[in-house]
Structure formats: C-alpha cells, structure tokens
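Researcher: Structure for this, please.
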Amino acid sequence: MIGHEHEVALLSFESLYTDNTLHAWANWFKKVWPAYRAWYLREGVLARPTYFQCREALRLHMPEILPLWERLLTAVGGGDLEARFLSLYNPPGYQFSCSQAVWRGASPMLVRNYDYDAKLIDAVVVNSEWNMQQVIGSSDCLIGLVDGMNQHGLCLSLTFGGKSTVGDGFAMPMILRYVLQTCSNTAEAIAALSRIPSHMAYNITVLDGSGHVATVHVAPDKKALVTSSPVATNHQPDEMVGASRWRTATVERERFLLQRLSTEQETASQFVAHFLQPPLYSFAFSQGRGTLYTAVYQPDEQKLTYYWPKHSWSIFLGEKHSKRVTMTFPE
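Model: Predicted structure, token format:
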C-alpha cells in the first residue's frame, strides 16, 4: 500500500458494536480470517502450539475468559486453527513503535500514538458487551486490543518494549482484552499483567477511574517490573537501549513527554496536540512505522477520541450505531 514516501494510503477506520449474540463480530471474523490465517501460518503450522496447548494455557492463566473464547469459536463455526489463533498463545512475533502517557489534570486521560504498518492494522474500534462487561478499544487480531477502556474507567495501552526476544506466552493484545474483561482498577490490572506470561517485551500504561497510574514492563525472559511512571515509549528501564533507539527515537520521545508533563500550565488540548507533530508523530509510513492514530481515553466521560492532524472522531463506551472515517496517510 505504501512503497515510497510520496505515495499515499487510504485507510478506513470503522466502529463495531458486538453483544453476546456475537453476530456482528462473527461476520467481521469471516471477512478478514483469510489474511490472519496466512499471517498465523507464515512460519508453518508446526511452529504454532496445538489446540490442547492453547486451551490449557488459557485455562491455567486466564480461566475467566475461557468460556468467552469457546463462544467466540462456536460463533465462527469452530475449527482447530481458528481456536489456536483466537487464543493468541505463542503467535508469530511482531513489532511496532508507539508513545503513550497519562495527563494528570482535573480529568485524567490516557493518550497514545499507534505507529504501525497501514497494511496490517485492523482499523476497527470494537465496542463489546461480552459477559456483562462493556469494553471499548482498538482491535488487534480480532479478539485482542492494543488500547482500551472498560465500564469501570480502567484504561490500558501498550507499546513494544524494544527487545525482539520471543518466548512462551500470550500476545499482549490478548492480555489487555483479559484485563479489561476481568479487572476494575489499576491494582487488579497490575496483578494480572505481572502474572500472565507475555510472548514478547511490552510496556503497558494503566489509568483507572480514581486516577491511579502505573506502567508495567513485561518480557518473556524476566519478572515484570512495575513503576509509577505515566510515560512509556519503546524501551524498558532495566535494559540497555539498542540500535532501535536511533531508528525510533524512543529515548527522545520519552524525555519529551516527561518534560511536557512537568509543565504545570499545559492544558489537556495542548498536551494532545504534541502527539500530532514530531517528535511524537512519525512520518515513517514507508518503513511501516507511521503514526496511524492518536487515541485519547477519558474515563470520566467514558469516551474514546481518535485524532489525526486534520480530523478527530469520538466514540462513547457502549455506543451501538456504526461509524466510519477514511483517512489518507500521510495526511
């Protein structure tokens, strides 16, 4: 879709409301499943865990979500490969560059840039009411979320942690789905994020309805590190920053955000505006690292707003009617 800097890509973002009937979600799954199937099998079918390994991992680490996984699988007609994929246990590895921070004003909000390949993003905002829990967020791999919020005002967002090491564990979008389905505050989220194995390194920033903030740094080869930092980019505090530092400016982005948060006079709108320009906003679309959206989660209003340099789009938790917006990258 994007081959050179001067070429543009059209990307349609849409909202999807899905209740316990799962009809809308199942129709979407069937539409995009061939592409996800090809991605899941890109290293060969034997590289992926078996159905029994996936089910046992869910039972062991996320037992509360196991019935939902089974109902989602039934909604799409069952199937061994579909079941393994929807567990997101030991999937292929993948990387992206993102920035995220919590603005601690009168009405705290979680703000994040999602920098990724325009050809690979779901570009779907899922408003789900599954198992009597309302969740809204940016979809990844159909069941997972790269950022989201639930009815309790708990907000989470992930960034890649900077190391390419892949181990046994779940894709972080699946873990975020689990946390938003089962937790109501930052303390509960920290406990879940610290115990569930992640297959790659991630930084997860958490904000709850009471304003409690934390960032949890996880990786498959070490114990989770919990900090009170309101900022995360693409490195972890206890790791050496490698070559990706220069490619993604991860340290520079982190310092910039910390400086902005220390400015007492900065308003919420001013803080969000920084995400729409360098050094936070990335124009690296030809390298698959351009900023595809800025998401702002406002737990007080139960609202998610997407921002682009020339457009914005707001969606409320539980909103049932569909929306669509088509963006051009670079804008």
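Researcher: Any notable elements?
Model: The chain is about 30% helix and 30% strand. The chain has a mean pLDDT of 93.
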